[in-house]
Amino acid sequence: MRGIRDGHGLHLMGSILAAADRGARIENNILAFEPSDLRGQLRRGKEANLIVFVVDASGSMSARDRLSAVTGAVQSLLVDAYQRRDKVTVISVRGTQPELILPPTGSIDIAMKRLADVRTGGRTPLGEGLLMAQELVDRELRREPGRRPLLVVLSDGRATSSSGLAGVQQAANAIALRGVMTSVVIDCESGRTRLGLAVSLAQQLGGTCLQLTELNAESVVSSIQVF
Question: Is beta strand 87-93 parallel, antiparallel or unpaired with respect to 49-56?
Fold first, then answer.
């Protein structure tokens, strides 16, 4: 099955075929997706989702762009998720430690207030942010075991905290071994020289890496499992 638009989850092969039909090219082992390429599967059941954003808020302008895309995506998801009782949560990765800036909520008002004034800059404790995401999911599943968790990481894969890339790999492997959530890494790496760290992170998580041609709320929403 090639997958369908607005389907359930991420139908990877269907998305790749749609991109190929459009004429997308592979450069540096990365296929550049557009939002219109993404396909899902036919929905089965009405499980509620728990969507966990881990967003790299280190740096300046690029970090603000990532947060803006996440804020718009959260608003869009919650508008559409009322009947499914979906919840969204956001972890900011910056400074010395990650910060839970939006605890799991289904309230648009709460989400918009919490996301209105988030600081950026500093180091990138990515590994610590991934561990926080796993701990949060474990807590939520103990309360509501029927929820379907999805981890969405917006990052270039760099880590500049004390634990470094080794900490990222350790956290990612722990998440993959735990095996309770689907993972999507949205590659935010820019510039001509590409290190491919986001691709490696997705592989370590046992998930999918997407490089979006345009990072905005629409493209983020189109990339994740919400239907």
Answer: parallel
